[in-house]
Structures are given as C-alpha cells and as structure tokens.
Design goal:
Helix content of chain B: under 10%
Number of strands of chain A: 11
Largest interface: A-B, 26 and 26 residues
Strand content of chain B: over 45%
Number of helices of chain B: 0
Distance between the termini of chain A: 36 Å
Radius of gyration of chain A: 13 Å
Structural class of chain A: mainly beta
Oligomer: heterodimer
Number of helices of chain A: 0
Distance between the termini of chain B: 40 Å
Helix content of chain A: under 10%
Low-confidence stretches of chain A: none
Largest sheet of chain A: 7 strands, mixed
Order of helices and strands of chain B: EEEEEEEEEEE
Order of helices and strands of chain A: EEEEEEEEEEE
Low-confidence stretches of chain B: none
Mean pLDDT of chain B: 93
Largest sheet of chain B: 6 strands, mixed
Chain lengths: 114, 110
C-alpha cells in the first residue's frame, strides 16, 4: 500500500517559468492538503481539496498559485511565473476523512527558483 | 487567528540527557498532534492527544495535553542520536485544515 506519492522530488525553474507539483494520495484517501515549508520553519497551510472541490484555500497566495484535484489523477499545485521567493519545500498530505484527522504526508517536492 | 507557539526553537543536547519541548496557544484545540520530521522527508505522526489532561507514552517519549486544551508538551527521556529531528505540533484549524507550529529542532550528540 503505497503512501502519499509526490513528484517531482526536486524541481529547478528559472524566474518566470511555471512549476507543476503532483500528489497522489494514499489509496482510499479523498482529502488532500498542500503545505509549504521554508528552511528552519514549520509547515504553512495552503489549500485543502476533496475530489473536484476546493474546500479551503485561505492559505493560497491570491495570484500565480492554483490547485486542483480532479476526479481522476493526482492533485496538482501549479505556480505560474515563479519568483525566487517561491523556493521552498511543498508537502502534500492526504486523509480518509476531513476535519484535520490523521494526515499522511508525502516526502515533499523541493522547488528551487534560479 | 489560531497560532501554535513552540519552544525552544533549537535544542542541542548530549546523548542520555532528558528534554522537554512545549507547544502553546491562546486558542482551545479539540486535539493536538505531534509530528517528527527528518531532513529531506515529510512529517511523520507520533501521537494525537484529544482529552484535556491526557498523558500518552510512546517508549521514551511522553506527551501531555493541558487541562484547558491550549497547550501540550513532549518529554524525551535518555535522548539518543536517533531522536534528532524537527518536532512539530499541530492542531485542527477552524476549516478542517491542520495548523502547525514552527517546530523545535532537536540535535542529540553522541
């Protein structure tokens, strides 16, 4: 039973390019959460999705960032026109039920913007 | 705004020592969770505390949830180098997400 799978594990982009981060939740999990972590800091909530629905996007920057969790396929966090400040580790977590129950995290995607 | 403050931010000790790290908030949480994160990996859940005053033990780790459900502590007895990592506390936010503290970075030297 595979855990939460994130890819790519490392991504390098130049300023102005687009970054797409993918997350496949654990089997049977329909709730997905995205978090961002800067060096030496905790995880900052970005967005919470269920299949085809955004439940809470209060942590998402208003511009350039978007997330989706389609009926089929992985959840995708998309960052358009990346800037150096977007460099961070992006973690995805999933759960079987909502309400901040036990979350299983992926190993993260580390984005570096040159 | 619900915030979780963790202290200390950094802790460096020798193998065999005991330590306690804290997680405090001015808000009441229905439950608090503790995670441990190693470099290059995602956080891994250690424990969930639900009831005010609850104490849970996991081998050399003891977790306590405050009576008012606003704070929690993690005590490690006889720390080992394998305990090195970032310890994060997290509580349920108002909209179903999980809110994290900034963590305590623990280094246990042999």
């Amino acid at each position: 039973n595979a855990g939460v799978m994130q890819n790519p594990r490392h991504l390098v982009r130049r300023r102005g390019q687009e970054a797409r981060l993918r997350c496949s939740p654990m089997k049977g999990h329909s709730h997905v959460y995205w978090y961002r972590q800067l060096p030496e800091e905790g995880l900052k909530f970005m967005v919470y999705l269920q299949k085809e629905n955004i439940i809470d996007e209060s942590g998402m920057p208003k511009e350039r960032f978007s997330a989706e969790f389609p009926k089929e396929g992985p959840s995708i966090l998309r960052i358009q026109q990346v800037v150096r400040g977007d460099s961070a580790a992006y973690f995805c977590a999933s759960s079987a039920v909502g309400g901040a129950n036990v979350l299983t995290f992926g190993a993260g995607s580390r984005l570096t913007v040159l | 705004t619900q915030l979780l403050e963790q202290s200390p931010q950094f802790l460096s000790i020798q193998e065999g020592e005991n330590l306690t790290v804290y997680c405090n908030s001015s808000s009441v949480f229905s439950s608090l969770q503790w995670y441990r994160q190693e470099p290059g990996e995602g956080p891994v859940l250690l424990v969930t505390v639900v009831t005010g005053g609850e104490v849970k033990k996991l081998k050399r780790l003891t977790f306590q949830f405050g009576d008012a459900r606003k704070d929690s502590s993690l005590h490690i007895t006889a720390a080992q180098p394998g305990d090195t990592g970032l310890y994060l506390c997290a509580g349920a936010g108002s909209q179903g997400n999980l809110i994290f503290g900034k963590g305590t970075k623990l280094s246990v030297k042999p």
